[in-house]
Amino acid sequence: MRVQCMRLVTVKIPEIYLEGIDELVKLGRYSSRSEVIRTAIRDLLKRELWFSDKTEEFRRNKGGIALVRRVRLV
Protein backbone atom coordinates (compact mmCIF):
# COMPACT_ATOMS: atom_id res chain seq x y z
CA MET A 1 0.00 0.00 0.00
CA ARG A 2 1.34 3.43 -0.86
CA VAL A 3 1.78 6.15 1.75
CA GLN A 4 -0.98 8.75 1.67
CA CYS A 5 -1.37 12.15 3.21
CA MET A 6 -3.65 11.90 6.24
CA ARG A 7 -5.98 14.67 7.37
CA LEU A 8 -7.40 15.09 10.83
CA VAL A 9 -11.21 14.96 10.96
CA THR A 10 -13.23 15.38 14.12
CA VAL A 11 -16.48 13.43 14.38
CA LYS A 12 -19.02 12.78 17.08
CA ILE A 13 -20.15 9.18 17.47
CA PRO A 14 -22.37 7.43 19.98
CA GLU A 15 -20.61 6.01 23.05
CA ILE A 16 -21.68 2.46 22.13
CA TYR A 17 -19.82 2.73 18.80
CA LEU A 18 -16.70 3.91 20.58
CA GLU A 19 -16.93 1.01 23.02
CA GLY A 20 -17.16 -1.40 20.08
CA ILE A 21 -14.18 0.22 18.38
CA ASP A 22 -12.15 0.01 21.58
CA GLU A 23 -13.08 -3.66 21.94
CA LEU A 24 -11.80 -4.41 18.43
CA VAL A 25 -8.51 -2.72 19.31
CA LYS A 26 -8.33 -4.55 22.66
CA LEU A 27 -8.87 -7.88 20.88
CA GLY A 28 -5.95 -7.08 18.59
CA ARG A 29 -8.05 -7.02 15.42
CA TYR A 30 -6.85 -3.46 14.73
CA SER A 31 -3.90 -1.45 16.00
CA SER A 32 -5.84 1.75 16.76
CA ARG A 33 -9.20 3.49 16.71
CA SER A 34 -8.07 5.32 13.59
CA GLU A 35 -7.42 2.06 11.76
CA VAL A 36 -10.89 0.76 12.65
CA ILE A 37 -12.56 3.94 11.42
CA ARG A 38 -10.49 4.13 8.21
CA THR A 39 -11.36 0.50 7.42
CA ALA A 40 -15.06 1.12 8.05
CA ILE A 41 -15.07 4.21 5.82
CA ARG A 42 -13.16 2.41 3.06
CA ASP A 43 -15.64 -0.49 3.14
CA LEU A 44 -18.58 1.94 3.05
CA LEU A 45 -17.12 3.75 0.03
CA LYS A 46 -16.49 0.47 -1.75
CA ARG A 47 -20.06 -0.68 -1.18
CA GLU A 48 -21.76 2.64 -1.92
CA LEU A 49 -19.61 3.79 -4.84
CA TRP A 50 -18.69 0.54 -6.58
CA PHE A 51 -21.56 -1.86 -6.01
CA SER A 52 -24.69 0.29 -5.83
CA ASP A 53 -27.21 1.17 -8.52
CA LYS A 54 -25.96 4.75 -8.38
CA THR A 55 -22.35 3.84 -9.17
CA GLU A 56 -22.59 4.56 -12.87
CA GLU A 57 -24.42 7.84 -12.23
CA PHE A 58 -21.72 8.87 -9.73
CA ARG A 59 -18.92 8.01 -12.14
CA ARG A 60 -20.47 10.18 -14.85
CA ASN A 61 -20.44 13.20 -12.55
CA LYS A 62 -17.39 15.45 -12.60
CA GLY A 63 -14.62 13.99 -10.46
CA GLY A 64 -16.45 10.74 -9.76
CA ILE A 65 -14.04 8.51 -11.65
CA ALA A 66 -11.00 10.10 -10.02
CA LEU A 67 -12.44 9.61 -6.54
CA VAL A 68 -13.30 5.97 -7.19
CA ARG A 69 -9.77 5.33 -8.46
CA ARG A 70 -8.19 7.02 -5.43
CA VAL A 71 -10.36 5.05 -2.98
CA ARG A 72 -9.42 1.77 -4.67
CA LEU A 73 -5.74 2.46 -4.02
CA VAL A 74 -6.22 2.46 -0.25
Q: Span from first to last CA?
A: 7 Å
Largest sheet: none
Low-pLDDT ranges: none
- Could you report the average pLDDT, rounded to the nearest whole number? 81
Structural class: mainly alpha
Whole-number tally of structural domains: 1
Q: Tell the overall outline.
A: extended
User: Mind telling me the C-alpha Rg?
Assistant: 15 Å
The percentage helix is 55-70%
DSSP E strands, number: 0
Order of helices and strands: HHHH
Strand content: under 5%
Question: What is the overall number of helices?
Answer: 4
Summarize the structure in short.
The protein has 74 residues and is mostly helical. It has helices at 15-26, 33-50, 55-60, 64-72. Helix content is 61%, strand content 0%.
List the helices and strands and how they pair.
Layout: H1 15-26, H2 33-50, H3 55-60, H4 64-72
Q: Can you describe what's shown?
A:
This protein is mostly helical. The protein has one domain (15-72). Helix content is 61%, strand content 0%. It is built from 4 helices and no strands. The longest helix is centred in the middle third of the chain and has 18 residues, at 33-50. The radius of gyration is 15 Å and the shape is extended. The model has no long low-confidence stretch (mean pLDDT 81).
